[in-house]
């Protein structure tokens, strides 16, 4: 299926086992239907490291690709972006992908193992919704920046 590259433990502490493919992602992909599993493998082949947007080539039909893309994107494994270009006077579309769990993504590898589960918990979703309602669904970061402009 895929080659796993496991790095020997070093003096640096990691919160997750360090491999090119996260074990949780591999287990998740093996449980999915074939079209999702195939797209997941094609995405890993396109961008194994998570360093930048890479061109994606897939053998899936358009409808199978869109359904599988939705499942993978909802799982926060890869992001997809359409890229349109004009060749020979015709407009063509192909897809770009970026790996959110690649080995170069420190934000993923250094977070605690249970954090993803916590973000999906009922408690966190309830707190998140209450904060959104409190702030009237407006970004407070932007509001703070605007307020700082007037203060300065």
Entry summary:
By secondary structure, the protein is α+β, with helices and mostly antiparallel strands.
Q: Could you please describe the fold and organization of this structure?
A:
The chain has helices at residues 23-30, 34-46, 62-74, 106-109, 115-119, 122-134, 140-151, and strands at 54-56, 78-87, 90-99. With 152 residues, it is an alpha+beta fold. The chain has a 3-stranded antiparallel beta sheet. It is globular and about 55 Å long. The mean pLDDT is 76.
Structural class estimated from helices and strands: alpha+beta
Q: Which strand-content bin applies to the residues?
A: 15-25%
| Terminal CA distance | 57 Å
**What characterizes the major β-sheet?**
3 strands, antiparallel
**Helix content estimate:** 40-55%
């Amino acid at each position: 299926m895929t080659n796993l590259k496991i790095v020997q433990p070093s003096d640096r502490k990691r919160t997750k086992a360090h491999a090119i493919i996260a074990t949780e992602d591999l287990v998740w992909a093996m449980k999915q239907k074939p079209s999702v599993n195939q797209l997941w493998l094609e995405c890993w082949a396109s961008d194994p490291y998570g360093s930048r947007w890479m061109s994606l080539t897939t053998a899936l039909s358009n409808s199978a690709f869109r359904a599988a893309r939705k499942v993978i994107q909802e799982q926060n494994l890869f992001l997809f972006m359409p890229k349109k270009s004009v060749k020979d006077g015709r407009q063509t579309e192909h897809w770009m992908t970026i790996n959110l769990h690649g080995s170069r993504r420190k934000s993923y590898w250094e977070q605690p193992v249970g954090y993803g589960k916590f973000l999906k918990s009922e408690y966190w979703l309830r707190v998140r919704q209450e904060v959104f309602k409190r702030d009237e669904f407006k970004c407070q970061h932007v509001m703070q920046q605007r307020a700082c402009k007037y203060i300065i």
